[in-house]
Amino acid sequence: GQVLEIIAGTGRVLQANVAPVRSVLGEVDSVVVVFHDLTDIRRTERMRRDFIANVSHEFKTPLTSIRGYAETLLSGAKDDPKIAPDFLRTIERNAEHLEALVSDLLTLARLEAEVPATREQVDVKSVIDEQISSRTSAITERDIRVTVACLSIEVQADRSRLSTALSNLIDNAIHYNKAGGEIRISAEMQNGTLNVSVADTGYGIPSEELPRIFERFYRVDKARARESGGTGLGLSIVKHAIESQGGAISVTSRIGAGSTFTIRLPV
Asked: Could you give the 3-state DSSP secondary structure of residue 123?
């Protein structure tokens, strides 16, 4: 028999196993064709290849920078007080980026492993306050005003995953905001669903980019993302952290006016 792969007009990939059926005289009088749909398998393989290529690129960029500056320092620049400190700070910054990238990759791997979410009593206001408190320095440095509208809400949820999602959303709201801007965080219960929104007054996201922003390593503004130290995995982590609890994440945005990310979590 023969095995053929066919790309159908719909874009689906089919594997056809063809075998002849012979008569009692040994002549081929018909054939049996068995089709296997390989579309999902090929899509997964393509996603894996793209992921490996992206990870390789994300590691190579800072490593190339670290090696270049290290070689320059070893060639004599280490004795020049005018440039050595700047070179060392650049090496440190790239090393910190690699550390953040590894941390985010491990977080994403744990979430994609489909480990069931835990259920515990969570004080939503305390989770929000913790995330803001740990970013006081960055908020002050950029002169950003943060307002929180959240009464005392306790829900049954996975505290760690909710914290992870809010951590990344608040980080984005800080890094992609304008100096002197505002971040508005609100939380409320509505028909058995916890709704948490994080809104900023930043640069906004073009409407044509919105469908892809939760993809791994997808960046709307690559230059600003690298400048802020972003790994390109934050929103993908948010999506997995919320969807693994049966929730959903959505976004609305307007260029020049900012973005609003909304978590909807059934509790």
From this structure: strand
182-190 and 28-37 beta bridge pairing: unpaired
Tracing tokens 């492993």 back to the chain, one arrives at 113
118-170 pLDDT per residue, tens: 999 999 999 999 999 999 999 999 999 999 999 889 999 999 999 999 999 99
Q: How far is CA 181 from the centre of its chain?
A: 24
- Confirm if 17 and 36 have CB atoms less than 8 A apart: yes
Question: How many other CB atoms are there within 10 angstroms of residue 85's CB atom?
Answer: 10
Q: Which helix (H) or strand (E) holds 45?
A: helix 39-74
Q: Is 37 helix (H, G, I), strand (E, B) or coil?
A: strand
> What is the Cα 240 distance to its own chain's centre?
8
- Position 25 scores a pLDDT of 82
The length of the chain is: 267
Domains of the chain: 2-37 (no CATH), 45-112 (1.10.287.130), 120-266 (3.30.565.10)
Query: How far is the C-alpha of 267 from the C-alpha of 258, rounded, in Å?
Result: 29
pTM score above 0.85:
no
Token code pair at residue 63: 């490593």
CA distance 246 to 265: 7
Angle between helices 234-243 and 159-175 (to 10 degrees): 150
Q: H or E stretch including 259?
A: strand 258-266
**Burial state string for 222-247 with b = 16 or more CB within 10 A and e = fewer than 16:** eeebeeeebbbbbbbbbbbbbbbbeb
Side-chain half-sphere CA neighbours of 244 within 13 A:
25
Q: What are phi and psi of 111, to 5 degrees?
A: -70, -35
For the record, the structure tokens of 56 come out as 């390789």
